[in-house]
Write a structure and sequence with these properties.
alpha/beta; five-stranded parallel sheet; 44% helix; 8% strand; MMCoA_mutase_a_cat; methylmalonyl-CoA mutase activity; isomerase
């Protein structure tokens, strides 16, 4: 393949570049999935922590390479399962987690230094992450060995989904609390999954999905910088979650455009050294 890049059109490298090179239009790794397969994780969680744990063990035994936790609506809204507003919703669209004991049961027998976990949780992300890290400690796993993601994207909750608890100001403080804490103590943890998926499902076009998602991303970066964090301390652990609809050409173009735009935003607007 190297020979294909001997005579590149003028400006090609600046506009597209090779895979693994800025602006990452063609991907962030030089050989992409040929060297590093995608993590396979089925979004799963229902009923009690024990039942969801049994499901996770089954999925891992079948070859799944990571976990993706679905929480019920009371958990997503920070409500205990015995709260009056939780009636009819406990364990219905995800697993109910309210205590450290619940989290222990959810990951019983699952080595948290060997499996990465994505948790789709936003407003109470800090609390769920704290419970997860306590379970890792009890397993004898140091925080620097723990890997995974919390969604932690509160801005899209206000206009595309709805599971917010606090006003925007305090919510953004919690988001940046996680940025700072993980940069110092949990270096392998993705501190946010800036989400276009929900925006698209709420009616946006592919172009609007990129626009709103990157606007949210810029807001998070600005909030972290105002907090006093350095961009290269937290930016490498910002992740994105986009929809993948049926028009493969439009979707491929969307992903390529999103990578290139974000790389340029981080380098040109925020001064990131490794965008």
């Amino acid at each position: 393949m190297e020979g294909l890049f001997e005579s590149l059109p003028e400006g090609y490298r600046e506009r597209l570049g090779r895979p693994g090179e800025y602006p990452f239009t063609r991907g962030i790794y030089p050989r992409m999935y040929l060297d590093r397969l995608w993590t396979m994780r089925q979004y799963a969680g229902f009923s009690t922590a024990e039942e969801s744990n049994a499901r996770y063990r089954y999925l891992l035994a079948q070859g799944q390479t990571g976990l993706s936790v679905a929480f019920d609506l009371p958990t997503q809204l920070g409500l205990d399962p015995d709260h009056p507003m939780s009636v009819g919703e406990v364990g219905r669209v995800g697993v109910s987690i309210a205590t450290l004991e619940d989290m222990r049961k959810l990951f019983d027998g699952i080595p948290l230094d060997q499996v990465s976990t994505s948790m789709t949780i936003n407003a109470p992300a800090m609390m769920l992450l704290a419970l997860y890290l306590l379970v890792a400690e009890e397993q004898g796993v140091s925080w620097d060995k723990v890997s995974g993601t919390v969604q932690n994207d509160i801005l899209k909750e206000y206009f595309a989904r709805g599971t917010y608890i606090y006003p925007p100001g305090p919510s953004m403080r919690l988001v940046t609390d996680i940025f700072e804490f993980c940069a110092r103590h949990v270096p392998k943890w993705n501190t946010i999954s800036i989400s276009g998926y929900h925006i698209r499902e709420a009616g946006a076009t592919a172009a609007q999905e990129i626009a709103f998602t990157l606007a949210d991303g810029k807001a998070y970066v600005r909030a972290a910088l105002e907090r006093g964090l350095k961009v290269d301390e937290f930016a490498p652990r910002l992740s994105f979650f986009f929809a993948a609809h049926g028009d493969i050409f439009e979707e491929a173009a969307k992903f390529r455009a999103a990578r290139r735009l974000w790389a340029r935003i981080m380098r040109e607007e925020f001064g990131a050294k490794d965008p």
